Amino acid sequence: MVRIAFVLLCIALPCPAFSQTSEIVVGETLSIHSEVLGEDRIVRIHLPEGYRDSEDRYPTVYVLDGRDHFLHTLAATEYLAQANLAPSMIVVAILNVNRRRDMTVPLDNQEIVEIGNGAERFTSFIRNELRPHIDRMFRTEGFNILIGHSLAGFFTVHTLLNHPDLFDAYVAVSPSLQWKDEYLVTRMQKQIENEISLDKFLYLTYSRENNVNLLTSVNRFIKLLEGNPPQGLEWDFAYMAEDVHPTTSYRSFYDGLEWLFDGWRFDSTVPGADAHRMRAQYALLTQKFGFQAKPAERWCYIIGHEALSAEQISEAIEYFKYYVESYPKSSYAHSSLAEAYAEAGQIERAIESCEESLGLNPENSIAQRVLERIRRTR
Exposed, middle or buried: residue 95 (CB in 10 Å: 0-12, 13-18, 19+)? Predict the structure, then answer.
């Protein structure tokens, strides 16, 4: 297991449990023997912060060209989750053996089988070997995201159009859509002409590409989608004018995940924001993505205590009730609710919440202080 000291700049919380810094486990390396590919394949796994201390299940990001993109992908997922812009996610980075073989389809009249002939086999490896292995080992949610750059971007779009059920969302960065005479551009055109629905998410980026053919093919692909995208496809693209082909990945991986989970963060500062709207927002996100959506725990804590500090006691109680429902194993969820009940004069409920909190963590000083205050005033 690889460990790297990691410094995160984050909003300081009044609760010591959230504000302490600690070493973060960056990832572990797994070797999987593939019968489909006839070789061993290496993948790197990053489990989100808090994984070991919870029973939650998590969406999974599969990133291609894993040696190059593992670290900045996990940094993006952790930052987005900490800022409550996206759910916490598992990252699976697939390292290359023969990149060109795995990421492409055969060229016309191709005589060299080794080059450009492996996309279907690589897809089979992911579907039948890698995904089941990851799902057995880790608490995956069933919502899967594929990210690829350049030739791996071609493979990402290829998977969307030929095996759309394999992933739920696709991020294609400077994809090499010029491959095989714009095979995938033609494939998308047929998809549109045949009115085949595509209930997926696609985010595509490109830049000031050195390869004119790549630039032309991506523009044609975008024009097709702008004209009449397949029914059900939620998509967007970004032209990154300040970037070139090698640099698009770093920004695009973050931007793509932020776009995918647009609307995830609940803004308690807008007029009319309350616990009811917070519940409703995450209920809609649950419906949209097909897995249980909820705010990051730190934000449940922050928003509830903001209401408590503003002496909006009833609202704080409702926020903390939702906090407890979302994180029933969190000692700090129960101690937060206990604080609000105590402020409201609901002493028996405050005691019950303190007992729940201390049952989960006997060292929770907040719950201890609430109980002491209640005893002194009785």
Answer: middle
